[in-house]
């Protein structure tokens, strides 16, 4: 399935929450669902799941969606066990598996044809894990998956879709961090007022 189609489907069902996005998926996501609660950490290869875990624990009343890459997750496989051990109910881990380090030169990841991230997540202790290579099936199941109790991992077997600009300036800017911090603070204050 095309990455942009999968992300568009996710955006339809998750239009207004916290998203931790890295690398190529971050470039796509910031155009598909521009939002002040997009936490863009493209320079932290392997750290999406760890950043997402910290946010999920810090704001337990908010869903946290992590948009990871296969190469990025391979840099920090231990985070699967850490996430499972902490068991945040609001943690949703989406892994774009295209079997390569895409933004770093399209080099193949190790064991590209045999690795199964969904099975690794279950073995680590995630409550649920899924794997999709069909956009129709993904579209029909994504809403129910987002209603589950986490931690949940969703492996999306993807290929490139529409090309979005590689906007490093926005991803690395101090202003982007300030916007996210202020949006998160505002969201937390609204929870306190409820």
Features:
9 helices, alpha/beta, 194 residues, two-stranded antiparallel ribbon, Rossmann fold, single chain
Descriptive report:
The model has no long low-confidence stretch (mean pLDDT 90). 37% of the residues are buried. The protein has one domain: Rossmann fold (3-Layer(aba) Sandwich). It is α/β, with parallel strands linked by helices and 194 residues long. Helix 1 runs parallel beside helix 7 and helix 3 packs parallel to helix 5 (78-86). It is globular and about 50 Å long. It is built from 9 helices and 8 strands.
How would you summarize this macromolecular structure in one to three sentences?
This protein has one domain: Thiamin diphosphate (ThDP)-binding fold, Pyr/PP domains (Rossmann fold).
Estimate the helix proportion, in percent: 40-55%
How many distinct domains? 1
Strand content: 15-25%
Strand order of the largest sheet: 2-1-3-4-8-7
In CATH, the architecture is: 3-Layer(aba) Sandwich
CATH superfamily: Thiamin diphosphate (ThDP)-binding fold, Pyr/PP domains
Q: What structural category characterises the helix and strand content? A: alpha/beta
Q: Per the principal axes of the C-alpha atoms, what is the gross shape?
A: globular
CATH fold node name: Rossmann fold
The tally of beta strands, per DSSP, is: 8
Q: What's the order of the H and E elements?
A: HEHEHEHHEEEHEHEHH
Output the number of helix runs. Answer: 9
């Amino acid at each position: 399935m095309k990455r942009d189609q999968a992300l568009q489907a996710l955006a339809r069902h998750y239009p207004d929450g916290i998203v931790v996005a890295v690398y190529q998926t971050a470039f796509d996501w910031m155009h598909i669902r521009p939002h002040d609660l997009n936490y863009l950490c493209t320079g932290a290869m392997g750290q999406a799941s760890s950043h997402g875990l910290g946010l999920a624990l810090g704001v337990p009343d908010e869903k946290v969606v992590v948009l990871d890459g296969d190469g990025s997750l391979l840099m920090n496989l231990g985070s699967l066990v850490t996430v499972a051990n902490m068991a945040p109910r609001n943690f949703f881990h989406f892994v774009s598996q295209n079997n390569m380090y895409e933004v770093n030169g399209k080099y193949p990841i190790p064991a590209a044809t045999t690795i199964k991230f969904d099975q690794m997540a279950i073995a680590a202790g995630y409550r649920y894990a899924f794997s999709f290579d069909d956009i129709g099936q993904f579209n029909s199941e994504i809403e129910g998956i987002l209603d589950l109790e986490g931690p949940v991992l969703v492996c999306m077997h993807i290929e490139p879709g529409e090309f979005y600009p590689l906007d490093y300036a926005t991803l690395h800017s101090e202003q982007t961090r300030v916007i996210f911090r202020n949006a998160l603070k505002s969201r937390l204050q609204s929870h306190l007022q409820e």
